[in-house]
Amino acid sequence: MKGVVLAGGLGTRLLPLTKVTNKHLLPVYNKPMIFYPIQALVNAGVTEIMLVTGGNNAGDFLRLLGNGKEFGLKHLDYTYQEGEGGIADALRLAEHFADGDSICVILGDNIIQGNVAKAAQQFIKQRAGAKILLKEVKDPQRFGVPVLQGDRVLKIEEKPADPQSPYAVTGIYFYDAQVFDFIRTLKPSARGELEITDVNNAYIQAGTLTWDVLEGWWTDAGTIESLYLANQLVSQTGANRMG
User: Fold this and answer.
1) What per-residue confidence (pLDDT) applies to 2?
2) DSSP one-letter string for the chain
3) Burial (CB count <10 Å: 0-12, 13-18, 19+), residue 80
4) Where is the Nucleotidyl transferase domain positioned along the sequence (predicted)?
5) Does 159 map to a domain?
6) Is the N-terminal amide bond of 27 cis, ω within 30° of 0?
């Protein structure tokens, strides 16, 4: 399985911090934010990773990360997203890199206390379809929210005003090669973006999406408040723990 880290966007919710740099290069405790999702993939046994980025500071990732040697990678691939077309649009750029293999996708501002090694192994045994990881949160309306019926996900609603469950779909996804076929069928949302929620709903309609609840804490770091929280959590417990 290959890994894809999505680190594009303009980071407007973090202005003025992002006026002169990409948000994924901001510090979270003692490391740049981008280190955490890369390490999460490495801890799940992923050895081939592509970073999708964009904006005016894309070259800074190359200066910081090089060929990925610091993470034990033989090499690190890069590609560039023009504009802000959404998460699914960014993922579309990794099709050639994936080359028919399954992928683990993680958003570049997602930080976890533990690891997703168990979920990765379960997805490999699943052999096809998709797997998403859920986490109970206080403010699910900020995220994609699953509508659950027993063990089944009926659908995922994007940033609903009235969430039908307390769970957020975390920014960690496992997909087979069909993901790129689904992306090609998408139409832009009201925000003018190709939504990853629509990709997940396509897998639900196909009956091939599974889910687990992520253990340990999880946060994004895409707002001033969540960036502050991420710094606190990492300083208190560390991140990407294998125990």
Assistant:
1) 97
2) -EEEEEE-S--GGGTTTTSSS-GGGSEETTEETTHHHHHHHHHTT---EEEEEESTTTHHHHHHHTTSGGGT-S-EEEEEE-S---HHHHHHTTHHHHTT--EEEEETTEEESS--HHHHHHHHHH-SSEEEEEEE-S-GGGSEEEEEETTEEEEEEES-SS-SSSEEEEEEEEE-TTHHHHHHT----TTSS--HHHHHHHHHHHT-EEEEEPPS-EEE--SHHHHHHHHHHHHHH-SS---
3) middle
4) 2-235
5) no
6) no
- For the record, the structure tokens of 33 come out as 């934010």
Q: Is 11 left (phi over 0), alpha (psi -120 to 50) or beta?
A: left
Is residue 162 domain-resident?
A: no
The residue to which tokens 């699914």 are assigned:
88
> Looking at the whole model, is its pTM more than 0.85?
yes
Structural domain count of the chain:
1
Q: What is the CATH number of the domain that holds 98?
A: 3.90.550.10
For the stretch 181-210, pLDDT in tens is: 999 999 999 888 999 999 999 999 999 999
Single-letter amino acid code for the residue at 15: L
Task: Report if residue 150 sits inside a domain.
Answer: no
Question: Are residues 204 and 154 in contact, defined by beta-carbon separation less than 8 angstroms?
Answer: yes
Half-sphere exposure (Cβ direction) of 105: Cα atoms closer than 13 Å: 32
Q: What pLDDT was estimated at residue 191?
A: 85
Distance in angstroms (rounded) separating the CA atoms of residues 5 and 23:
14
Confidence of residue 41 (pLDDT cuts 50, 70, 90): very high
